[in-house]
Amino acid sequence: MSVFNRIAVLRAERGISRKELAAAVSVNYQTIGYLERGEYSPSVELALKISQHFGLPLDMVFSLKPFSAISVELLRARSGGKR
Amino acid sequence: MYIPLLSGREPTNRERRIASLEAIAGFLGVIWLMVGMPLSLAPFVCTLAAILLLMGHGLAILARSNPFQTALWPEFARRMGTGRGQPSLDERDLSIRHRVFVISYQILFLVIFVTILAFDLLLPHITGSATQKWNRLHDLIITLLGLLIPLVGMLPGLVLPWLETDSSEEDGPQRGLSRRPVNKQKGDMDLFPKWVRIISSGWVVWGVCALIILWVFHRAMPR
Hints:
The structure holds two protein chains of two kinds.
Chain A: E1 4-5, H1 7-14, H2 18-25, H3 29-36, H4 44-54, H5 58-61, E2 62-63, H6 70-82
Antiparallel strand pairs in A: 1-2
Helix pairs in contact in A: 2-3
Chain B: H1 13-35, H2 41-64, H3 91-126, H4 133-163, H5 194-199, H6 202-220
C-alpha cells in the first residue's frame, strides 16, 4: 500500500529542522529523511505522533493518494471562497 | 575512497556497498587460492597479499558500520563497539534489520546449498584426503563451519547497505511532497529476482537441504 505524506512541506512551512522533528517524535533524524523521500512507510504510532506534533488531523499529513500541490489547493480554496 | 580510521567520518551506504563487494571478492579470492594455488612462491605471496588487502579494506569498512546484529540475532538492544555513542535504533532501523535478518538467512542457505553441491569438485583441491568417505564428510563439515562462522557475523553488514539508500543530510534541500510511494521503492524482497526468492525461501530450502544432507550421509556411510 502506498503512503504519501506532507512532512517536508509542513516542516519547511514551520521552519523545523529534521533533527528537531525527529527529537519531538523520538526517532533518528535519518528516518525523517526516509519518510520525506517516501522510502519508509511509518507505523500508526509514528504517523499519529507526527500529525499530533504538527497539530493537524492524520489525513492532512498522510494519505493513500498523492497530495495535490499546495498552490493548486490554495487556488481551489480561493475560487471556492469567492462563490 | 574511504579509508577506515583516516577518513574521520562514517562510511556512506555507497561506500559500504563497495566494501561488501570487496569483502565478497576477497572471500572468493581465498577460495580460488585454495583451489588453484600457484605453485611458485612469489606469485602465491603477491596474490595472497592483494586478496588480503582487498578483503581487509572491505571488512574494515563493514566493521566500522556495525549493523548491530548478526545472522543469529536480529538486533542487539544496546549498541556496542563503534556504535556506542550513536542513538538507539528506532522503528525504521529495527524494521530494516528484521528484513536484513531474513535475507541473510536466504543467502546463508544458498551458500550451504552451493557448497554442498560443489564440494566434491572442490575437495580434491582443498585436501588430499578425499579417498576415504568418512574423511569427506568430516571435511565437508569443517568447510561448512569455516564458511558459516565468518558469514554469520558478516552477512547483515553485507546486506544492509544494499537495502538502504544513503541517509539524507540533517537538513538537506527540500524535495517537496513525497510523491514516491513506498511500495515502488527497491525494497528488501526486490534484491533478488522472483525465482531466486522462491528457491531460497522457507520450506523449499529446508527440504532441499534435508535431501542433500541425507544424500551426503548416505554416500558417506561405510558399507
